[in-house]
Amino acid sequence: MLLRARERAAQLGCTPVLPGAGALLSVLAAAAQARAVVEVGTGAGVGSLYLLRGMPADGVLTTIDLEVEHQRAAKQAFAEEGVRPTRTRTISGRAADVLPRLTDGGYDLVFVDADKDGYPGYVEQAVRLLRPGGVLAVDNALWHDRVGDPARRDELTTVIREVGRAVRADERLVTALVPSGDGLLTAVRR
Ligand SMILES: C[S@@+](CC[C@H](N)C(=O)[O-])C[C@H]1O[C@@H](n2cnc3c(N)ncnc32)[C@H](O)[C@@H]1O
């Protein structure tokens, strides 16, 4: 099923989370017993399926995307995987508009995987949304190995590098950068 979802993601030109980082998402969701999860950037639903695999059966994934067509593909992937419709809440809109409407401390895990220039704002919102012990995961934290190369100073690399620095320096969080896939920055809310 993941394979079909990946194929649809490729057709839509939307890069899904890579397998190593995806498997880690399942583990993080299971470890956090994540009943309430937010995904920023639904795409074709690949990351969503990894999250749902780790979540308890009564958990609900809220997933946000600007592109209705991407969410349609994701819903197809959920149906193929046999995910009950009550387990997912898809919200169409700009993440910067949707996230502020979600409840403080109401979530067990937030996965950030949308437009990279929005990452600083999404991460700040994620920290607000997480309950103590909740988990933050940020995809593409290595950004094709450009983040670790000080010679790379293009705008997106700089934004992602700064997000990594800010998360590591944030005393509300305990952080680890896992070099799986394109890099998964993970943190637990104290
Ligand atoms: C990398 S893809 C998400 C991949 C998905 N998480 C997965 O693993 O399969 C990024 C998604 O973010 C969405 N996106 C881009 N800018 C956005 C914004 N400002 N608000 C919400 N979604 C956005 C795109 O439409 C795209 O579907």
Automatic annotation (TrEMBL):
InterPro entries assigned: Cation-dep_OMT, SAM-dependent_MTases_sf, SAM_O-MeTrfase
A Pfam family of this chain: Methyltransf_3
This protein's UniProt keywords: Methyltransferase, S-adenosyl-L-methionine, Transferase
The UniProt record lists the keyword Nucleus: no
PROSITE patterns hit by this protein: SAM_OMT_I
GO molecular function: O-methyltransferase activity; S-adenosylmethionine-dependent methyltransferase activity
BP terms from Gene Ontology: methylation
UniProt-listed PANTHER family: O-METHYLTRANSFERASE RV1220C-RELATED, O-METHYLTRANSFERASE-RELATED
Official protein name in the record: O-methyltransferase
Organism: Cellulomonas soli
